[in-house]
Structure prediction request, 846 residues.
Amino acid sequence: MALIKKPVTGMKDILPREMQIREYVTDLVVKTYSSFGFVRIETPAVEHIENLLSKQGGENEKLIFRILKRGEKLSLTPDTKEEDLADSGLRYDLTLPLSRYFACHAQELPMPFKALQIGPVWRADRPQKGRFRQFVQCDIDILGEKENIAEIELITATTTLLGKLGFRDFTVRINDRRILKAMASYCGFDEADYDRVFIILDKMDKIGRDGVREELLDSGFSQDCADKYMELFAQDLSDVSGIRALAEKLQDHLPEGCAEGLIEIVESVEKVKNAAFGVVFDPTLVRGMSYYTGTNFEITMNEFGSSVAGGGRYDDMIGRFTGNSVCACGFSIGFERIITILMEREQDGLYGAPEKYAYLIEKGADAAFVADVMKQAQAARSEGKTVLVSMMNKNRKYQKEQLEKEGYILDNIKEFYHSEFKR
Amino acid sequence: MALIKKPVTGMKDILPREMQIREYVTDLVVKTYSSFGFVRIETPAVEHIENLLSKQGGENEKLIFRILKRGEKLSLTPDTKEEDLADSGLRYDLTLPLSRYFACHAQELPMPFKALQIGPVWRADRPQKGRFRQFVQCDIDILGEKENIAEIELITATTTLLGKLGFRDFTVRINDRRILKAMASYCGFDEADYDRVFIILDKMDKIGRDGVREELLDSGFSQDCADKYMELFAQDLSDVSGIRALAEKLQDHLPEGCAEGLIEIVESVEKVKNAAFGVVFDPTLVRGMSYYTGTNFEITMNEFGSSVAGGGRYDDMIGRFTGNSVCACGFSIGFERIITILMEREQDGLYGAPEKYAYLIEKGADAAFVADVMKQAQAARSEGKTVLVSMMNKNRKYQKEQLEKEGYILDNIKEFYHSEFKR
Prediction:
């Protein structure tokens, strides 16, 4: 019986051209983040099912690829339930494994610890265009630093990287979960309803203030609360004076130092930056993950609908492993999104090797002749050139066309004829 | 309830120092193999269970991590059997996925296709020291090239890489599955018994000729066969004249061109090589995988017991997907083994970045001062330096000791005191 040629549903094979771009981006990521003192680490693809299902992952927990128990541990009886079948699963993000990693190895790591992770994660999402069930995430995290130098470094490193990737005119949006909560508290919402309220607020950029107000009312919230809430957004709050004005209104609802910290971050990023981008306060920014405890940030570009990076502070997750909380702050670029954008740019030359040669050898040439050609190729390679050695196909013209597609220019395709030497 | 800190059984977290060596090796692999015209590709970690269980993987098929079906597809009734539970699994090698990949995408790929793969595979092996359930494989394969230029290129590329990694005095051992079969046929073994015979022959380097002879007899093979078999190994066959002598004895049992091809490979590799190593014919070399159809090769080093690379020709596997057979030949380095060897060498400096600076800022410095230091750091980074910016810990001495462990030399750790400027 013939085997199955296509990859499994929702996952993809990576063809050489895309791979070249992925390698280019990965190299740039590693070089840039390393220059900020981030060090690369890796965790296994497989995690304990108990950790994966510990409510750190929100909706992602529904999308876990679970791995069957093995050997005697898998006993199938009429009473067996679904949850008895799996003891592990594929990681759905890099944040939970990082927290486990740090909890396990803190003794061997510098403090604060600046980690860089680049690796695949898996989510059994409904397959759709441009969205795959295996995809690469790329995260930087600073663990054990409670000062806002962590946020400033993360934002500076990420914007430096985006600049090097050729992105311009992007915007860093910053908010703080504690401001979100203070606004909701100021307006009289019940704490139990905050998450529902934030999900509606998050739609502000799409449906506007009136839309949000209407949806709040539709969801059964009081007119008083909704009106007071929308009143907060009546003026432009996007710069430092906006943060100050909002803080003055919210007063005791806001923890001490929260607004001041945010102002420092915005001002410092502006001062340190060496790429063209803006930094704004966005009090409607709601990052989906419930583990965030403080600042939140996101980078958007006008050209592209969704964000290209996102992150924030999550001071409680590592404590779930150790009992002692360790502060933590991370920023994740949308690796796959960036690859898609670069693929569309079609700047082939940018990612290729500079000097690629192909040596084609006449079919039927004897072994000594072939070895001679290969010896020449070895000499060229030791000078840093790329040399592909191949036998000539029957259809030489087609072979050359194919090679040109692979980036071998015609001048650099050399033919070696044994027969000429024989004559 | 506290979460689980350790990685899942048999898998490991990679600490910064090991990661640095892994990145160094990966870089060198990519650069070296690229210079031979190999192009990097990737397949998903998850494969169809039907493909994984198609008998290409031998013993490895018993070690598959199987992935639970999801949603409605997973229906648990009292009749459910184990094989009903999984629709996919984690790949146990890179060769089967490559064959699927080529079968699926041949139209978009150059021909012959020279592929480089570096990626994790998973096997639920019994955990033991130095052996993990997730480990990286690193394969080069040439698909669609039936001439022995494929073998010569694979061996030259692999030995060039090992040379660059600092390995010396290794030995390339070559054999051919057709010679193995011809020897067994010449001695009168039944074709059905070949695999059993080869498993015993494979022990030659450990138990010697007498040991192999004894084990053959113990396994019920006839004295005639065993004697004739061991007689073949009475003389040294390890060089080209050995191949010739053996071929003369085996005569019609050996397919035409087989011995000549092997001689060409040995002579060409000798001629082309630019690293210090030997090439020998080893008629006792048996590579475990049953999918091999022709040449087999392995690289061993006296310092290390087991091999550091292995491969061979497998002309039938891709045909299992397409119905049309495509010839294929591959070589795989023992990535994890090489990492272990380099870790033991302790050449820390070799893999680090050349210029690493740490800027430590006094605790309590105001935001403007912190931003100033970060601006200086950004300027140094744009000159290619690595600059870690961090707040000073309470225990500054310990912090510096930690940084020294991370490769920051004391001269390059600078302290920035706000208070000095205040005064």
Notes: Chain A touches chain B through 112 residues (CB under 8 Å).
